[in-house]
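To assess whether the prediction recovers the assembly geometry, we first specified each molecular entity separately, as shown.
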Amino acid sequence: MSLNFNTPDFEVIRNENRCIQCKVCVRQCANTVHFYDEEDNVICADDTKCVNCHRCVTLCPTKALVIRKYPLEFRENSNWSGKVIKEIYKQSQTGGVLLSSMGNPEPFTVYWDKMLLNASQVTNPSIDPLREPMETKVMIGRKPEKLEFDSNGKLLTKMPPNIELKIPVMFAAMSYGAISRNAHESLARAAEELGIFYNTGEGGLSKDFYRYGENTIVQVASGRFGVHKKYLNAGAAIEIKIGQGAKPGIGGHLPGKKVGEDISATRMIPVGSDAISPAPHHDIYSIEDLRQLIFSLKETTDYKKPVFVKIAAVHNSAAIASGVVRAGADAVVVDGFRGGTGAAPTRVRNSVGIPIELALAAIDQRLREEKIRNYCSLIVAGSIRNSSDIVKAVALGADAVYIGSAAVIALGCHMCHSCSTGKCNWGIATQYPELVKRLNPDIMYKRLVNLISAWNHEIQELLGGMGINAIESLRGNRLMLRGVDLNEKELEILGIKYAGE
Amino acid sequence: MLKEGELKIPSGCAISGIIDKKGNKFNGEEIIKSIALMHDRSNGLGGGFAAYGIYPDYKDFYVFHIFYENSSIKTQTEDFIKKHFDVEKAEYIPTRPVPNIVNIPLMWRYFVRPRVQTCVSEKDFMDESEFTSRCVIKINTDYKGAYVFSSGKNMGTFKGVGYPEDIGEFFMLDTYEAHMWTAHGRFPTNTPGWWGGAHPFTILNWSVVHNGEISSYDANKRFVEMYGYKCTLKTDTEVIAYLFDMLVRKHNLPIKKAINVVSAPFWDDIEREKSEEIKNELRSIRAVYASALVNGPFSIILGYEKGMIALNDRIKLRSLVAAEKSTRTYVASEESAIRIICDNPEKVWSPRGGEPVIALLEGE
Amino acid sequence: MGCVFMLCKDGSKKESMMKKIYAFESKCLGCGLCEVHCRTAHSKSKDIVKTHKRENIASAIVIEENLSSNTVSYFALQCRHCENPKCIKACISGAMYKDDSGIVLNNKEKCVGCLSCILVCPFGVIKKNDDGRSVSKCDLCVGSCEPFCVKNCPNEAIKFLDEDGARALI
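The predicted structure of the complete assembly is given in tokenized form:
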């Protein structure tokens, strides 16, 4: 079929007065947008291939490049927008499911932006974190209902295993396969330096990375790729992945072309074979099955590692989370509908799941009503963008957060939403060796350390402003939040008051 | 304008406390004199006292001091009390007229014994104290216009809207003999104040007077509410009383461990601790009771049957001075408030942040 | 300039302590920015656009590419500042010389463009200038603290290291 309705999404604008024909853009574009015309000594561009990843723009030594939205307009129609029409063109041409990457980009309310924090004035001194201790350490894991002491004041209760986070942030599960080896190495090294944790994702743990075990959370997902006793014991905690915010209810698919030697060995599957994670765990069809898996994992690790259970934020998350805690999970991880992904069906990503802010508030409240909130830790994910999002999440009731998108942005991701092509020009979501090496872990782990350290400073400033010197005193402290632009129902679910109240 | 109890009110204050560790009793004149000296630390919107050992003839009875807004709520509340308790004696709380004390609610006190049988509820067996505390919380939550402001044994609190010295005069504290007194002068920032909102706050034998504002309030509140408490007044102080009641009475924590919970040592100090056993203990306390850490500036005096504990926040953002002479221990917001009632104390010191002053009755 | 060599206690310069440029194939993206910045650093204008539009300078660092179907690799090549440089021996006009700190330099005034140095250089890192009468080679950007190719490499694939530092990384 030679007739193609597709038109470019982006346009490459080159300032010819500045272009020196150095061909850096030509060499750096894995999508082969730029090419050199020797006859006329000019660099040209094929706009149809451009995904707007900014690699060429960033590396162009003379800043001669700009990428713009392609100016072609359809007749104005608020219902049949250009995006809707182009999706139909694409599907009618290929017959395929539309695929997208990263989190839900649709204009739903970002509740973080509708909540404002408190600060001390007069009646209560704010605390200066540069002069006074300001604690951001948190302990993640199961807690007993109470501590028992003998008559001499000696502690009798033995604490269940907890992991200690110096800063209440962890790097979210991104599998080796979805992201590159160098990206994993950067995350692992940063976690080690920061005293936090990164998550292997569902693709197992490369043998070279076992040395970061103390700062690793090993994931067990429905495909069970790379799961064996040594793997489970390699990390500091285990996470059972039930669902993912970007694609609740469906599994995963790593195309065979990404399964090279090392990924094959790590995942324990043949080179070149597709790695397909089923939608459910086929040994978990109900909550009691989850309990069995939790305790199988605990048995395997001699009850020395906390077991997390990660669920996607869906309509009845609160009840599900309660069941998960009762099933024996030491921490519940909830991933909101803006959570990122390497690839998800567009319709699922854009229209399944609920906002993390509402899910978090509902879950925290439900666990308190059932008097089980203190037994477990609550970790949230799904588009935590900055330190104030973290502080607001803690005030709503979270113990800690996971960041995925923010972490890859620190590694150079420019949110072009094209991970599924496997041709990430920044060396993150790719397995092509010549692209992978664009991400130098020596440079990139420092950027992650910088980011989280900067956020920690900001968290401390915000805490100090509220007159708080330990982050646990903010956890669930919803009086520190006020809403703006929210309706009664939203305020009720978030459990906060309106600004001015 | 919302009344207290419908919103959270920050307030600053003066506090003072005296205990005779041998149990010798003395009347309320000294404590009034001490708190009156700090007149400028309150603004006439609340004052109150807790006195321990004042009802020796009824020492096995719980004594409820209750404010009523009208007589119909009094009837309803009394029906509830009679259903769940044997009432030995019910009477007006005696007062004398003081010009500055106005808008006085109905005030009654009841000497009661719980009828636990009636309330071994559907599921769980309760002891007497748990039963009583649940009944108190129920009245304060469900009986609008009634408020139990004292519910311990052989102790009582006396409080209201006014300067503390006027409140002391009004309640005729010179006629009560106690081995321990605590007092509070209030400086709320933004309401007319109501009688129930004055300090001390109590639950059973626990009483708390507090200077400061708790920035961890909602975290603490939502934590204790998981264990059956209801913070009805939405002021910080109430939650401290509940925290101690929960930690010491329900969870059986030794008092020193409870202090480690609410005024926890810093992680850095814990890491520096040499003894692995102590380190593990403190780490466990912080992990399990993270939500019971009380944050923000405060100095409090906590009274209970065994004695008195004064405590500052971890970085000492509120003043607190302590002194000792003979069998007595004194604590107050200002040293002058001690010296005016205690010539030449043997020892005067300013406790460090998070370091408690523990003054217990002999033998405790 | 102080970074190019280190002074020993007695004030003499020790060649083994001299810093040189090391290229790391495993990190090289083959983007060619080192070439762009090398040319600019050795231009009159010191402006990237003017250098490339108006001046004609050969880069002293060159990316070698291997674009075979199974492996793609790149390597940045530039003068090694050999201990016993063949180019100096071969130079007929005395233009090629080694300075006090060990840097091999070409004096353009003396160079007659015989190209003997290019013939003998085992690394192929001396380039003929377009005028055909002189050569260009790496001078480690004498006078600036760090060579421009090193400073502008986006992936730290080229490093400026002394022998110990290089040994630690290789």
